[in-house]
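Explain the record.
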Amino acid sequence: MKTIAVVSTAGGTGRTTLSAALAVLLARRGRQVVALDFDPQNMLGAHLGIDGFAPAGIAQALLDEAGAWHTHTWRNAEGVLFVPYGAVSLAHSARCDARLAAEPQWLANALAQLVLPRDGVVLIDTARYPSQQADQAVRCADLVLCVTPPEPAACATLVAQLDALRRDGANLRIIVNRLNPARDMQRDVLAMLAAALGNGLPLAQRVHLDVALPESFARGTWLFDDAPHSQASHDLHGLANWLDAWVAGTPATAARGHGERV
C-alpha cells in the first residue's frame, strides 16, 4: 500500500476539503482507500459525508481508552474507509501529543496493522505543520502533499518550514489551492514561491478557486459532480489522475491537464 500525507503550514488552506475529494476520486478509480483523520479538529468525516462528528477514533486509542484504533471506522457511500480522530478535550489533546512525542513511530506502527493490497492507498489528513500529528504522518508517508493558497502569509510560512519538510518528507510535492488568476498579487506570490522552491521541487498541481464549492459541501455533494466542466473540477481530476498513476508506479508528469487557465 501507499501512504499519502496531506499537510499545510497555515490554517484555512482547504487541506481537509482536498483530502476528502482526493480520497473519493481515488476510490472511484478503483483504489481501496483508507482516509485517516489525524487532526484534532476531527473534521474530515463531515467532508466525507459522515453525519455528525465521530465521538471516538484514533485519539481514544492514543489515550488507551477505547482499545484498538481500527475498531472506530466508517465507510462512506463512495466506499472510502474512514478513520476519525475522535473528540478530545484540551487536556486529552495534550496527552495525545505527549504520547506521540514519546513514541515517534506510533502512527507507522498503527498503519502497519492495515491489510491493504499493494495498490491500496492510505490518505492522512493531518493537523497543521509543525505538530506531533503532522510530523509523524510526514515521516511515515511515501508521498507528502503540502497544500497552500497563493497568499503571501501562507506561502511565507511554507517557505519557512520548507527545509524541515524536505528533510522529513523524502517525496514532497506542493499543491497550490484556491488559485484565482484574476488577482495579480497571486501571480506575484506564485513567482516568489517557485523561486523559493527551486528547480528540484516543482509545483505538482494548481487547483483553482470555485465559489460553488461551499454550496456543494452544504448539500452533501461533490463539486466535480455538480459542476463537472468547471476548472476546479478539471484540476481535481488532474491531480487524482496524477496520484493514481503514481500509486500504480507509472511515470507521471506533474501536468496540470489540458486547457488549464492559469
Observations:
- The radius of gyration is 18 Å.
